[in-house]
Amino acid sequence: MSATDPSPSSGTLSLRPSFWPRPPASDPEMEKSYRRSAWKDAWDARAATFVVHLITLALAAWPAAVWRSTMAAAAGPAPLEQDVLLDIVREGESLGLGGALLAFVFASVLAMLLSVPVQLAWIAALAGRDRRQCLELALRRWPRAIAVTLLIGVIAALVLALACLPAYFLHTSYTGEPNARTHDLLVLAGLVVPLLVVMTACAWLDLARAACIRQSVGESLKRGWWALKGSSGTYTWVTVARVGLGLPLLMLPLPPIALLIVLQSSALLATFLRSRWLAEAWRHVAARVSEIPSDS
Amino acid sequence: MLPRRPLSRFAAALALALLGPATAAADLPDDAPPHHYEVIATLDPEAHTIVGSVTIRFTNTSRVPLTELRFHLYMNAFESEETVFMKESRSSLRGVRARGEGSIELETLRVEGVDRLGRADDELVENDHTQLSVPLTTAVEPGAQIAIDATFTTHLPPLFARAGYSRDFHVGAQFFPKLAKLEDDGTWASFPYHGNGEFYSDFARYELVVDVPEGWVVGATGARTSDRSEGSRRVMRFEQAWVHDTVFVAAPWLEELLGREGDVAIRVLHPPGYGSAAERHLEVTRAGLRHFGEVLGEYPYAQLTVIVPPRGAEGGAGMEYPTLFLTAGPWLAMPRLPFIAQDEVTAHELGHQWFQGIVATNEVAHPMLDEGLTEWITGDLLHELHGRDRSGVDLPFLRLDGFAIRRAWSLGDDEPASPPATAVGDFRSSMDYGRSVYARTSTVLETVARSWGREKLRRTLGDYARRHRFGHPEPADLYASFDRSYGPWMSARVLRPALEDGELAAFRVMRFEPGDEGARVTVQRAGSLPIPTQLRVVRGDGSVEWIPLSGRPRFDGTIEGDVRSVRVDAARNALLDRSRLDDGAGDRPSTGLLARALHFAQSLLGVFGP
Ligand SMILES: [Zn+2]
Description:
The complex is a heterodimer. By secondary structure, chain A is mostly helical. Chain A is globular. Chain A has eleven helices and no strands. Chain A has one domain (45-289). Chain B is of the alpha+beta class. Among the domains of chain B are: 367-500; 506-573 and 580-594, Immunoglobulin-like. In chain B, the strands form nine sheets. Chain B has an eight-stranded mixed beta sheet with strand order 7-6-9-2-1-15-18-17, with no helix packed on it. Chain B has a five-stranded mixed beta sheet with strand order 20-21-22-24-23. The longest helix of chain B has 23 residues, at 430-452. Residues 1-25 of chain B have low confidence and may be disordered.
């Protein structure tokens, strides 16, 4: 199998600039095997995944407890429906709903700060490292992962700005058109591209963070980018599944205990699916590293 | 009760073909109205002007000889920032800002063929030229008729307040010189054009000739009696007796959906792409014609035109005229969002066909008889269509009572709003006006409906609407209908305090001390309104008891047994309570709030987390 330098297939237009190294060829059989192994990796690292789940649970518990007590104090023994709910919204300011919102903002900031080291340790655990190595890697690679995050953030922001232009031009050129349906559907269609950009950037970020456990910043960006091709399918279905397990379940008409069990199980499942994705991400970027024989 | 399915376009067209055009008006007075207008309007869609003429046959219906005529020249409200309209509305109405100027120029004005323009005074209020006083040399005796004719050019403003244009969509409303309302004592009920109230006129026969470019579509007041091409122009004539205004809407791209309810031919004109929304507007219109007809007396005209304005024309949206209204809403039908999408606006503007159209009150002096009553019957129709608890939002996972939304709207912030029985010019702001006239009036009436029976309130409003059909009643006439139905205490103890003084009826559980002997409970009532209510008592064994509370200001007593919780007005009948958060005490049934809050926070943090 000669996969090092696939000759450019005739007639294929390549947008790759000349300074950007040619990606190693992808091997569909290998990618299939990554997907199979990722399930096993994720299951083997379930203890670490559970710890990660507990960390986010703890972060979420704070604003949730504030919300609950604020709402409960406001509503007294009234069922939370109809005009009672409207009164809480109406009197929200004096009831301290602002404080509850603030709690959420703080929890989000904390989650963002923690996310880089926690994710590094998590990926290391999914790659089969022991607990000590995981913590050590998380601390050692933290600055590198931050650099990767910032660079991808800047690139994504620039591309996103460009990607929004078609939607913006569609909006301006169809404003005033009596058929508002045409305007709305075209703008909606125009927003598909920015959505793809955001999803691509998020997948790239995960892949590059996985790579930076072993590689330099530049190398991580490159390998993460290359790995996108084989892994974007997994990223997409995992993301869709996690969204489905999230907010849409909030309105389930279940009795309180059953509701708690269902919602917490779905949250745990969502965390596990993310671990499954990160395990595959690791396999993809690790496979591009020279020590794995693809070009020898 | 859910509305019947609308006729499809084909079926509607077939029905029209089979039944023929609408026959004579259903339920109009036999005699001709005392006044007659013929308005000829030529629209220049490039310059956004209407060049026109008006011929009026006017009868002195008062008891005294008339020495003055009073006209409204309402388009002059838009000629500068200094007019009453612009100052009151601070150049913005219902969230839409003024973007340009409009005016009406009178070129000639003759009474019995003699020019009177030179003697006329159009600045009755400083800097405001929306009224015109024309002194007469010879008095018009009671019962005598005179002929008036005028020519004018109206410059339509960009559409921000009812009349004007948005690109090629034109609303010709209040665009011609029109006489003010003549009262029985010979005074003119004349006022400058206000942001929040414009209507008060005599019934007349209106003939409107609209001249637009060929290919344009026009909706207008009345029945279309002729439609012909003249070169590159299309000229249509519309006629209607027993209305107090005439109006037209024109655009080149309007599409048509036809329907029928009983004897009434319904024509929905909508922008392209709005087909599904138009079906819903038609469905609500048909349900409304049935419901309002039953409650308030039959819709008396043979046709009704519903205009769905395009995006960008919000300034003209949600506006009622005789036999025609402009509704509002998105292009996609959303029948499950009655308060937000199509249902509320269409029901409301249709309701105005009765409260303002047929029962033609003075909107500027008594906006509550116009907008307030209309808002209640709107909510009543949505209650019929969706059920009480789903009449605001009707989603599988979220339901809101439409009157709970109106109640929250009426309470607003803590500052007391002006009472509903306030004249338009005396409200502190547009917000105050909306909260009071629309939201408070309708929640007062809904509290009456829920406390003393919905059917009884419908019969009462039906009595008022039927007695004053084609009349110009005052608040006292409304109170009289209520007193006939409920007894004289109703206006003295409920309506006047609530509508004239802004009185509320609030409850609060002040004390709840459960013990072995039973629970000591104190319920405090604030406000003088004698709204009957009940205390719901839930005991440890799950049993529920309802204890009626009389109109006393305070209930203080011991309730026997293992009382777990109490709640006053648990049925949510009294909508005049400032806060419902203090209406109960004791155990609260768990609602899974923590589980939901936790999952909500987890899902959101999943976006920022590892
Ligand atoms: Zn209205």
